[in-house]
Batch of 3 targets.
Target 1
Amino acid sequence: MDYPQKVTKTLYDNNGFIADDFNDPEMREMYNDLKVNRLQYEELFRNFGCTLRFEDKCFYLTRIKVTRQAIESRMEDFYLWVDIVDFLYDVIPSVAPGSRFYYSDLFRKVETSVNLPKKLISIPLKLKKGTVPDTKAYMEELLDFLKKKQVLDEFVREEDHVTVYQVTSVFSYFKDYVKSITLRSEEEKSYEGTV
Amino acid sequence: MASFNEYSIGRFGLCLNRNRDLLTRLFQASEPVYYSQVVEDDAYRNCDINELIDLHIVNILGKEMLSLTPEFHEMISKAFSLGYLVSDHDVMRYKEKLESDIEDCNASKDFRHDIYLRRVKNDIGEIIMVMSSSVDELNAAVEREFKYAEDNELKKEHLVRFLNTDKKLHDLIGEVDSFLFGPAVKKLQRDSNDGELDSLIIECLAVFSRKGTDLLKLLTTINYYLNEVNKKIEEIEKIHRIKALKDEGRLSSPEYSNLREFLSTDFALWHETGSQHPFYIPLEDIRESPFIKDALLKAKIRHDLEMFRNQPAGPVDSMYNEAFAVDKRKNHPQEIMNQFLPSGKSLFSFIDDFDFGQELTLNEKVNYFVYFACVFHKQLVFTDSYIERNGKKILVIYPKK
């Protein structure tokens, strides 16, 4: 294990992911370290009450022990992500790991729409103190949040110094997570009612 | 399309009077086609595929086959027939029929050549019709997907790739068409003898072989993209449904989803929005900060202290984890501390009496106790006396005055 402290800080302290498509070279080094020393890291995180998982080229942690109270809390966290991903699909339907977009395009699309600003504001993210609560502020807050949660990587294009956002594989984690949830349709329920 | 019959290509192939060696050479010259690219249903395609394998046109890798919708099955089946269904049997039958037709005409040699060429040309015309018809069907399918995608607010540029592929297909058809009915063929039609006619047809078949492979690849590509679009649409629809249920407050109900059950088993720390563990001491601080270590050593009850000495990281961290599960939004540590400092009570007694919004176990209370002792140790006085709760000795700590 070459980076136990950094890996612990990223995965555990910051509730993060370590994936191989992050721009940060340090992240990729940690990713390689995790791949090579996976068993030792699993043991380390078991002591923290967590399981180390690896899916879609991403490492992350899940908790082993869950209290009832924690499920309620998880529910709220999950709802926040539903709001965010629902909004993202409305703005960029083709959003997927590796896709890129510009802030200006995103902002223009939201600003010229009737429903999108309402949707954006309804996402329960807190604005920084003293910020004017307009669409731009909410949009920036959302992008900051997504960057912080590693869903977006940000880099500046060399030719024209324009900031580009790139979607990381963390997005596909949430997408797959949602796929695994079973929804029961009205039809199924009415069918069950008649049986 | 209505006049197309399955043997058209076979009959067309006959006038070459070439056997499978020639065909094999032609097909081998183009890029290999893989079994997994072109087939889904063994029962449906079995017969044709065997022929293709015999001709070394299709390579089998043993991979799973692509899932194709019935209409694509049909189109691909037709694409097969454009270049691939030439068997010895078909060739013989076509040759016999064509020759007997021409003999029956009892016409001059030139006129017979004319009939011969016209027949072949008609057959090629039928093939073109089938190709065009396939393209029409393809267009209709793409249009349907496009409309569906638009209705579901899927961005147009997402579909541009399909349309580009579709355009390539149109170009391909045009190319074949102009080759077969272009000036070169008209000239040959006027001046041809048996040998030239044969070479013309060979050339035609060569074009068809190459284009047939291209067509097949394009159809497979289009089908792949359409499947991708379908998947994407399903994803978006599911998220919209989840969002709608959430907004109606029904998502957590077991009648509508298994979310609650799901969250109790599998949930990455990543979802947890908090940087936001208010009751959280960074690992580095626990291990490296002398103040926290000292405070922790002072504050820990004896049992935990031993564990801490033996194995600094694990047990302490997992103990804090349990504390994090307590409602973290209502109780901020600084607010609790603000209430504690003027209270004059001992720290554990204060925590014991404090309303955390739920009933806490003794261990959970000890977790809070240790947390406050560590983080706010500068504002606290550590005494030498202990109080006892359920067999555990807990240090008495007061706020500094």
Note: Residues 190-195 of chain A have pLDDT under 50 and may be disordered.
Target 2
Amino acid sequence: MSARARTAMTAASGAVLLVLTILGCAGLPPFGHYPGPYGILLNLVAPHERQIPNIVTAVNFDYRGVDTLGEEYIFFAAVAGIALVLRNDRKRTTEQPLPPNRELHGERRTDAIRAFSALAIAVTVAFGVYLAIHAAQTPGGGFQGGAITSGIGALLFAGLGYRTLSRLAPQAPAEAVEAVAAGAFAAIGLATLVATGAFLRNALPLGGEGQLFSTGTIAVINLCVAVEVCAGFILLFLEFAHETRIERPEPENR
Amino acid sequence: MEQVVQAIALVLAALVATVVVLAREPKRQIFAFMIYGLVLTLLFAALQAPDVALSELAVGSVAIPFAVLATLVRIEHGPR
């Protein structure tokens, strides 16, 4: 396609998009005015019904838990897809980094970098785990906590090197943990279906509002999600870290 | 006060997003994108959506840049 035709098409579709966006925005409620009613209703009933101060978590893991189950499996499928695409030559991956195409200054990490990384890992784990286990009390929860904790994968690779990452976060256990945690969410759903007749209906004792061990199945599902998301992101970091290594030459005949 | 913080965050997001688009060199662009992730985190926090802000923090400023950087290394230094 010629440059002129491309520009014309971009301009035309851009103009249509602009008009549609303006029309769409014109129909929105004013900034900061939530029309309800579900959020308002849940804010009223959820603290009492589920003994939970953080309504977002109650919505995610209870009132629309099926939705979250679907999202969980979207994430699972995405990580599996990345693993599938990047892994065909895994048997041939070595620990050697790819050759730089220009001089790299200080390829060996300084002690300062290592020490800072170790400190950053400690802070990341503390913050991530705090977020994950306080899903019912404060903003955040399994997804956020798990994703932030998994940041140690990136920190290990960048600060301490590929070898440390692949030793401390080996592939096979991470895969197993991710799969078991993802399966556990569905298993909880089936268990509640058998026990209460409704998929993901909260069937456990709720405990007292604001306490660490409270909110029944919400807390259990939240833990599964935290583990699944953390292991999933670490797998993702591993897969991409493998890509920066040299591969053994392909065998002549297979 | 609340509106002021939100307005600043919105303007900042628009500015950094423009920088991301205008950075043509992939390696520069991904670092701009990381900062954009942090700015979005601030914006979501200013709009009282801390859950979304925390997700954006992890996904936008760590996970996506990591994947893109590793891919760039592979493209630039890899075999073939």
Note: The CA atoms of residues 67 and 73 of chain B lie 10 Å apart.
Target 3
Amino acid sequence: MSKILIVAEHDGSRLNPSTAKCVSCASKISGASIDLLVLAVDGAAVAAQAASLAGVGKVLVADNAANAEPIAAVLAPQVAKLAAGYTHVFGPSTTFGKDLMPRVAALLGVGQVSDIMAVESAHTFKRPIYAGNAVLTVEVPSDAAVVATVRVASFEAAAQGGSGTVEKVDAGVALPSHTRFVSRSGATSGRPDLQTANRVVAGGRALGSADGFQIIYSLADKLGAAVGASRAAVDAGYVPNDLQVGQTGKIIAPELYIAIGISGAIQHMTGIKDARTIVAINKDGEAPIFEAADIGLVGDLFTIVPEIEKQIGG
Amino acid sequence: MRRIMVGVKRVVDYNVRVRVKPDNTGVVTEGVKMSINPFDEIALEEALRIKEKGLADEVLAVGIGPADAQQQLRTALAMGADRAILVQTDASVPPLSAARIFRQLIDKEQPFLVLLGKQAIDDDNGQTPQMLAALWDRPQAVSCSKVEIADGKATVTREVDAGLEMLEVDLPAVLSVDLRLNEPRYVKLPDIMKAKKKPLDTMSLGDFGVAEAPAFRTVRVDPPPQRSKGIMVKDVAELVDALKKKGLV
């Protein structure tokens, strides 16, 4: 029987929604038991949230002052130690999990399955390769721990209503001091989180400037949507890097994705192919974005976007 | 000798639209343009800039792959790497094996810094830097968009989901690089000629005692599911109408 340990992602007080996606992925393995691991300074509040996810058995809490920031070199030896007895160790394919999980895998001496998008069996998974232009079905050995990251856009969040038990643990391993957190700067926009938003309005290079991008923010606010961007718009300095959607940015699956002035490079498309409805607005009718769009409109975005805002009403 | 080691992987060029083979065993790579993995090119550029600032003496480019991967290492030498090593194999080398090979080369070459791309754009695994740092028991900083080297430390800015994170790591360390770290230089013709005289050593995968057969088995490779064909609307009124019908606004 599969015994799965999921490394919880959190900011010290709130559980990141990526964890509920991992639980959902793990629950696709039939008959699996699912435990969560919270590495924190004081993980009680996060553990309570983790325990309320449906399908969770135990929540292991490893409190340690060294866990104040998610430093992979500090967390990995604890995860590797506490993974003893588990058949699978999962983490989210967010920047947190991408940083941490390969380090865990190497400490355990096993390979890693990156970006699980579907579970075929306890040891067979589907994952995207070549920027999502091919899907690999991979079978991993059943006589070693399975370490994997979960492509969060591929899974619904696990429901609430669980009643997991919380248990304090101590990995009892020496932790390095060679890696030190200095600072973190991020946009606190007050808008929905890009990775979990139901609606996303995204802009590309055609917006022309940071000022030009204001019409994207305005439409997003009208729709209660998160704001995204193409790599070109980030490279040009119109918006910060955390808005980037695509192969090397965020992979998202909103109900509605409105791509404005985005041509649709394959690296961008891989980030949005799980969106339920894609709307494309571009002045170039030949832009590849239209091949994937559910609804396309050719024209000048500076005329169209304010007009949409007006017509959807208050 | 203050040495920087850089990984250089030969991959299908990022402009190629890859096609899955009809027998579902992989993607078509025959007759397809191959290039240096774009992230590795950025890693190499950063190594060269660190050397040009006088903070390193030698840039060593390491590739693992078929004999043809010499082409990409020659390009790396033309960009400015001082020498190159190809660990030659026709087998597909999974990230853990690649990390083990790098780990052994580190013992021999004693770099103070290892710069790797944050992922290769073929397998999209994004694992080798972190695995190498674990095996080496040294710091890692992944997805770096800024790197400063001073006083035996690297201060790096990393691109994370929440924005930007700054870390300080003791050297030696493994850094994986992101797109916005720099813009790689173009190779000039005289540099290509000069690169032909630079040392490019070939080693065999067998020299490293790393298993040839990957532990993971490829069951099959499929094209991604296609989205159904959408509609084109002629104006904003039609667009808003279509969104309302879907209950999206």
Note: DSSP finds nine helices and 16 strands in chain A.
